[in-house]
Design a protein that fits this description.
alpha+beta
């Protein structure tokens, strides 16, 4: 389908000269996903600067049955913000809608537009002596609208929850151009169905989120960070439980790093350093935080680690004595994805299972993966505190990248089948997009899928909202 020029002209008029891009070199950054798995085409990238403009765009596109692909910072991993290759869809970038509309420190809430970069939102909260706890490696480029549309997680889910739990309300433009205003920052509201949650995690397939009321929290005054060397994942789960009990649930982050992942970072990412003088099977990056000045928090961390050391569940530990050391610990963790990319092709799985079953799942997943790919390096790391693992396979001296990639489908099926047996998720935090549509169709409960399709039909009967994604 070719979009008629009179319609394109009308769309340009809606947003004005500063609100669209139509030159190939200008549109280029909007046409490929972050991982370069998908590439699309479009005659026009629209960049509205108000909810009213978004509403006018969708009303016109709905009238003419034109597909619209909402796009935030374009940092997603599943191709959820990439238009189709036939040029029949428009890209709707929210990047100009970046105003903080309101911030009420006493109410611990903020209203931010969808195009606000996550780092901007965090900085605005900090300036008001508050915390917005969502934190991702892409914080300097991902946008609040994208965080909402993918129900982003990050490193503080253990303490604060995923994006869905950090939102009080949303403003959404529906496919036909109507505006649904649910922005009131209410903690209690039982007046009918909670429509807010319908749009969070929907990846732009049901409407365009243009703003959100966000929860703020007291800013941490005391933060203690440690890197603990461990025998393995089972010891990590036990240590997490000990720390939650001992601290009164002040653990904000608990990240698992196997030795193979640490070695990849040390080899491939300059500026990383091993804090220990010998290798260990696994490590936990631990962070505790309190909203008050609490000199006892470090003692709690030290005492708990010492008790676990005595019990043989911790092999060594290093506590950050300075901000620089804390940043060095986090650099090691955050360098793992980059290191794995630099090490060559890999097979990636973004999965979650109940926390208590994590060690058992990891053992079984490793066994089934190695049965298919003998010699592969298993790089299994992630947010152990919320049951989320990046269960990845990398090539080795005995298994080439080509041989590894040739078995991708077999490995994926075996790992995801195992996840299903644990009643886990094959998409813990990266969404569905285009990449995992078939997986959703395969593993989702049929009743759930039917309800999702009914919602899609009710809210977007002409199918213009992010066509080809999720369903």
């Amino acid at each position: 389908m070719t979009i008629p020029e009179p319609v394109l002209r009308e769309l340009r008029d809606i947003v004005g000269p500063a609100g669209y891009l139509d030159q190939p070199d200008e549109m280029e950054p909007y046409l490929a996903d972050h991982r370069r798995l998908y590439r699309g085409a479009t005659p026009l990238v629209l960049r509205p600067d108000s909810t009213e403009q978004v509403a006018a765009i969708l009303a016109l596109c709905n009238e003419h049955r034109i597909g619209v692909v909402p796009q935030g910072g374009n940092t997603g991993y599943c191709g959820g913000a990439t238009p189709s290759a036939d040029g029949s869809q428009l890209v709707l970038s929210l990047s100009r809608m970046k105003r903080i509309r309101a911030l009420d420190a006493l109410d611990y809430s903020m209203v931010a537009e969808a195009g606000c970069v996550l780092a901007q939102v965090r900085a605005a909260a900090e300036a008001a002596d508050r915390l917005f706890p969502l934190n991702l490696g892409s914080a300097g480029s991902c946008q609040i609208g994208g965080n909402l549309s993918t129900n982003a997680g990050g490193t503080a889910v253990l303490r604060y929850g995923v994006m869905r739990e950090l939102v009080l309300g949303v403003e959404v433009v529906l496919a036909d151009g109507r505006v649904l205003d649910l922005l009131a920052p209410l903690r209690k509201n039982n007046a009918g169905y909670d429509l807010r949650d319908v749009f969070i995690g929907a990846e732009g397939t049901l409407g365009v989120i243009t703003a959100a009321s966000l929860k703020l929290f007291p800013r941490p005054r005391t933060v203690e960070t440690a890197l603990a060397a461990l025998p393995g994942t089972e010891a990590a789960i036990e240590l997490l439980a000990r720390l939650r009990d001992a601290s009164g649930d002040l653990v904000t982050s608990f990240e698992l790093l196997p030795r193979v992942a640490v070695e990849l970072a040390l080899i491939h990412v300059p500026g990383t350093a091993d804090p220990f003088d010998r290798p260990y099977p696994a490590y936990a990056l631990i962070e505790l935080a309190s909203a008050r000045i609490d000199p006892e928090l470090r003692q709690v961390l030290e005492r708990t680690l010492a008790q676990a050391l005595e019990a043989g569940r911790v092999l060594d530990a290093a506590l950050a004595a300075s901000l620089a050391q804390r940043e060095a610990f986090w650099r090691l963790r955050e360098s793992i994805p980059k290191a794995q990319r630099r090490a060559g092709a890999s097979l990636k799985h973004d999965v979650s299972v109940p926390v208590g079953a994590l060690a058992r799942f990891e053992r079984e997943a490793t066994a089934v993966a190695l049965a298919i790919c003998p010699g592969a390096r298993i790089v299994s790391y992630g947010h152990v505190g919320d049951g989320s693992l990046h269960f990845n396979l990398s090539p080795s001296a005995s298994l080439s990248a080509q041989a590894l990639l040739a078995r991708e489908e077999q490995v994926r099926r075996a790992v995801h089948d195992l996840v299903a047996r644990y009643r886990g998720s094959f998409s813990a935090e990266h969404g569905i997009g285009q990449l995992k549509r078939d997986e959703l169709a395969r593993y989702a409960d049929p009743v759930r899928l039917a309800l999702m399709r009914s919602l899609k039909q009710a809210l977007d009967p002409n199918g213009i909202m992010n066509p080809g994604k999720v369903l």
